[in-house]
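FAQ

Q: What does a record look like?
A: Structure on top, sequence underneath. For example:
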């Protein structure tokens, strides 16, 4: 395995890496990745949620094998193919108004949000957007330009973008009312409402710290958008498709978005994303957002298998049940580990907020989160950290995770927190894995 890491270091540029441990996977099965020596590591990240059904799920293997064997071209751009059309039908059937909506397919959440922004601007004739501090909408120039994460300050926001605080119930820096007061003030002054095309927002702020918004936040956003003729784009890339314990994460908020973006788990580990919006938006112009292999039959076959499996195996309900079990188990650990300030989330989108001071809720240093992650890896569990201060452990395990795996995860996290508190991991050991 050292050979694989050495080859990786020699040929893969740093600009494309986000590595939190020395994990190098030779193969995967279910919730586990295996290194070249056969050591099993329980993956609580699933590649940031991209492999939502785990690794090597039989339904995906069968669908992809069939699609490759009878490959109906390589693109939806130049001609229709049955897998892409069928996936579009499946996806629209989950939406509030399927008869008035269309689908665009891409390769990742980054290009989905990029396309959504371009489509909405063209359709409305408005150039301003509203987003939130802490948001991560992708790694393409257009999606980065409407993001607000502290790790993305190397890229300037698009002209006219308004960034608002995302209300955080744990730290309470800005209440819902205060956020709306700021929003209303912007719309009345420097960002006139008739210039704003859309608000783009995550139903659970993912990379900003797995923050679940307070009650009433989304309803208030929807009301203000309707009042001013502003569209509402909901980014479901990381937390959609059952992960939150509802099929769409926005279902928990009781609102209907104008545009929804999907990615990560939609492809079951293969590159696939989607934008869903009304006919008026999605038919704004032909050949408006072109990528040669969009709607690829192999990727969309995987996507179809993902949606069928979520329904057939009851994975929405399972995510709600297993997520509660995992959150409660970690909350029990907080009795012995005061570094755990908050355990939050919905379903199997979970954040563990590490604090330096439980009373002030001051975030723990990013080095502490990195040490916990490295020690977890050494003990057989893989996870990531997120948050504007890099202090939130992020758990997005497979929707198929079982109770034994949850028990393993809790036991390892318990041991890792104790070991880090005892000085088992040094600053030098985690220096190569200090990411965003």
């Amino acid at each position: 395995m050292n050979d694989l890491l050495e080859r990786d270091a020699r040929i893969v540029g740093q600009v494309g890496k986000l590595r939190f441990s020395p994990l190098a996977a030779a193969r995967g099965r279910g919730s586990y990745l295996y290194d070249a020596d056969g050591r099993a590591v329980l993956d609580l990240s699933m590649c940031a949620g991209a492999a939502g059904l785990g690794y090597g799920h039989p339904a995906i293997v069968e669908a992809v094998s069939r699609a490759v064997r009878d490959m109906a071209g390589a693109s939806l751009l130049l001609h229709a193919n049955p897998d892409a059309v069928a996936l579009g039908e499946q996806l629209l059937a989950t939406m509030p108004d399927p008869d008035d909506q269309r689908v665009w397919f891409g390769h990742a959440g980054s290009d989905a949000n990029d396309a959504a922004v371009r489509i909405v601007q063209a359709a409305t004739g408005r150039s301003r957007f509203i987003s939130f501090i802490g948001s991560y909408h992708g790694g393409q120039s257009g999606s980065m330009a409407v993001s607000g994460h502290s790790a993305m300050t190397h890229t300037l926001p698009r002209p006219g973008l308004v960034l608002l605080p995302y209300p955080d119930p744990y730290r309470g820096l800005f209440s819902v009312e205060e956020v709306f007061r700021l929003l209303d003030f912007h719309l009345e002054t420097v960002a006139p409402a008739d210039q704003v095309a859309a608000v783009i927002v995550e139903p659970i702020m993912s990379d900003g710290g797995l923050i679940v918004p307070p009650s009433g936040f989304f309803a208030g956003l929807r009301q203000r958008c309707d009042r001013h003729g502003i569209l509402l784009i909901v980014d479901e890339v990381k937390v959609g498709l059952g992960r939150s314990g509802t099929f769409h994460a926005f279902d928990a908020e009781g609102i209907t978005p104008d545009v929804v973006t999907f990615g990560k788990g939609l492809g079951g580990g293969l590159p696939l994303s989607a934008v869903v919006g009304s006919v008026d938006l999605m038919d704004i112009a032909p050949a408006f957002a072109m990528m040669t292999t969009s709607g690829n039959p192999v990727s969309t076959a995987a996507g179809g298998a993902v949606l069928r499996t979520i329904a057939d195996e009851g994975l929405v309900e399972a995510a709600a049940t297993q997520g509660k079990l995992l959150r409660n188990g970690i909350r029990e650990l907080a009795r012995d580990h005061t570094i755990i300030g908050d355990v939050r989330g919905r379903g199997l989108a979970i954040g563990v907020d590490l604090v330096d001071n439980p009373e002030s809720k001051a975030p723990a240093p990013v080095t502490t989160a990195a040490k916990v992650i490295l020690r977890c890896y050494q003990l057989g569990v893989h996870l990531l950290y997120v948050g504007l201060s890099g202090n939130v452990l992020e758990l997005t395990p497979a929707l198929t995770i079982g109770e034994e795996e949850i028990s393993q995860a809790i036991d390892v996290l318990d041991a890792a927190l104790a070991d880090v508190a005892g000085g088992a991991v040094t600053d030098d050991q985690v220096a190569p894995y200090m990411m965003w």
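Q: Is there anything notable about this one?
A: The chain has a mean pLDDT of 96.
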